[in-house]
Amino acid sequence: MMKLRINPLVATDLKEIRNFIAEDNIEKAVETIDKIYGKFENIQLFPGMGADLSKRVSFRTDYKYAVWNDYVIIYKVGAEYVEIYRVVNRYQDITRIFE
């Protein structure tokens, strides 16, 4: 199995997601974050499951993405690892995180 790396920016992404959901429902916020971490494990086990991000943005990139509910998990597959790069709302302009 490949190693899993998580970019430090992901902690901020998840905190913002949790805080937004917690405004209405703290239990749902915790459940959502747990499920996102579960998706990280799925990506670690099956790194080819995502689509090429280049098909969704107007520039060339070797990142992949997987969609779960309202969230897009952006990641990169290396020789021995999978790096979770960011987790963003699917309605957000993804290109802004690469600026």
UniProtKB/TrEMBL annotation:
InterPro entries: RelE/ParE_toxin, RelE/ParE_toxin_dom_sf, TA_system_RelE-like_toxin
Keyword terms: Toxin-antitoxin system
PANTHER family given in the database record: PLASMID STABILIZATION SYSTEM PROTEIN, TOXIN PARE1-RELATED
Family statement: Belongs to the RelE toxin family.
Protein name from the UniProt record: Plasmid stabilization system protein ParE
Originating species: Thomasclavelia cocleata
